[in-house]
Design goal:
With 368 residues, the chain is an alpha+beta fold. The protein has three domains: 80 residues, Rossmann fold (3-Layer(aba) Sandwich); 60 residues, Dna Ligase, domain 1, CATH 3.30.1490.20; 192 residues, ATP-grasp fold, B domain (D-amino Acid Aminotransferase, Chain A, domain 1), CATH 3.30.470.20. It is 28% helix and 27% strand. It has twelve helices and 17 strands. Strand 9 and strand 10 form a beta hairpin. Helix 1 packs across helix 10. The chain is globular and about 55 Å long. 44% of the residues are buried. Catalyzes the ATP-dependent conversion of 5-aminoimidazole ribonucleotide (AIR) and HCO(3)(-) to N5-carboxyaminoimidazole ribonucleotide (N5-CAIR). Pathway: Purine metabolism; IMP biosynthesis via de novo pathway; 5-amino-1-(5-phospho-D-ribosyl)imidazole-4-carboxylate from 5-amino-1-(5-phospho-D-ribosyl)imidazole (N5-CAIR route): step 1/2. Its EC number is 6.3.4.18. Homodimer. One of its GO terms (cellular component) is cytosol.
Length: 368
């Protein structure tokens, strides 16, 4: 097949379209909010009907988890051509996502539903420190409330969240890791190495890949992701975020799409996650991946584009979005022969990194 439709009009779909163009394939994007089609990498939007979509696109994929409840995008997301259909029925709701993980026997933080206000106190008594998460709609720290052991519960709008949230045990993790992998239409799989991630206020600020001292964790991570993709009959790229706890992996979140923590693959591997996603859907064999040393991915958040960045080490990917606080507007990838070799390159980006990035690099180096 040589034509794929991605539901969503954002930068992830655009990067899929760019990857497809290099292979002589076509990825078109459907913007649900405008109800218009963006052909390939073009910004010239045109209308399209259900019948035209059925005629043109044998495969439909997604760049996000949530869509309007009605309209063409909702119909396409539920159609049998959507390779993420099963994932969209499970992953966006944290209750069904956690229930699936429990069913599969995949480790995740102990949890319970927040059905009534008094359940929050019961969770604190049971777990100590807790994390309250809205069942749906949370992203980049929104819809999440962290309460340490003995902490103040007053900041959690429990009455408003009753019946719409879960409560997890707060996990004392060593570091945050993620794995990005792909499953093809025919069931073939391929995985990138584990990545070390650093979040500040719930937003990913820095990824280091491959994660240091992760050889013993790589295979378990691959097995968990493969089981999830098979359970959901999913095709394309998927990501799983983990906590590392006492040398074991605990699943935190699942993303049924290309993922921010996989952006390092643009410059850090022979095939980017966007290339891999298109390959998986178009029937192109999933070739072995070569990683180019060590890569740091720096998120560019809430700040206008600076021409001076082009003189910094690395490659800038800018999304062309309007600027607002907390918004992911681009990323930069820095590649070195070794993790230690990234230090000077990262220091050049100190003006866009929160304080503490050097400690993250030092802690990663100390592991091995």
């Amino acid at each position: 097949m040589n034509r794929v439709l991605v539901l969503g009009g954002g930068q992830l779909g655009l990067m899929m379209a760019e990857a497809a163009a290099r292979l002589g394939l076509v990825v078109d994007r459907y913007d649900p909010e405008r109800a218009l089609l963006l052909p390939g990498t073009s910004d010239l939007a045109v209308p399209i009907s259900w019948e035209e979509c059925q005629e043109r696109y044998p495969v439909i994929t997604v760049e996000r988890e949530a869509f309007p409840e009605a309209g063409l995008s909702a119909e396409l997301a539920k159609s049998n051509r959507c390779v993420a259909r099963g994932a969209l029925e499970v992953i966006p709701d944290r209750f069904t996502q956690k229930s699936m993980l429990d069913k599969l026997g995949i480790p995740t933080a102990p949890w319970m539903t927040l059905d009534a206000v008094e359940d929050l106190n019961a969770a604190v008594e049971k777990f100590g420190g807790v994390v309250v998460k809205a069942r749906s709609g949370g992203y980049d720290g929104r819809g999440t409330w962290i309460v340490g052991e003995g902490g103040d519960l007053g900041a959690v709008p429990a009455a408003e969240l009753a019946g719409k949230a879960i409560v997890e045990k707060k996990i004392p993790f060593r570091r945050e890791l993620s794995i990005v992998g792909a499953r093809s239409i025919s069931g073939e799989t391929l995985f990138y190495p584990l990545t070390r991630n650093w979040h500040v206020d719930g937003i990913l600020r820095l990824s280091l890949a491959p994660a240091n001292a992760s050889a013993d964790l790589q295979k378990p991570a691959e097995q968990m992701l493969q089981r999830i993709m098979e359970e959901l009959d999913y095709a394309g790229v998927m990501a799983v975020e983990f906590f590392e706890v006492d040398g074991e992996l605990v699943v935190n979140e699942i993303a049924p799409r290309v993922h921010n923590s996989g952006h390092w693959t643009h410059e850090g591997a022979d095939w980017s996650q966007f290339d891999l996603h298109v390959h998986a859907l178009a029937g192109v064999p999933l070739h072995a991946l070569n990683v180019h040393g060590a890569t740091a991915m720096v998120n560019l958040i809430g700040t206008p584009f600076e021409n001076a960045w082009l003189q910094h080490p690395g490659v800038v990917h800018w999304y062309g979005k309007s600027v607002r606080p907390g918004r992911k507007l681009g990323h930069a990838n820095l590649v070195a022969e070794s993790l230690d070799g990234l230090r000077a390159a990262l220091d050049a980006w100190a003006d866009v990194l929160p304080e503490g990035y050097q400690a993250i690099l030092d802690s990663e180096l100390a592991l091995g």
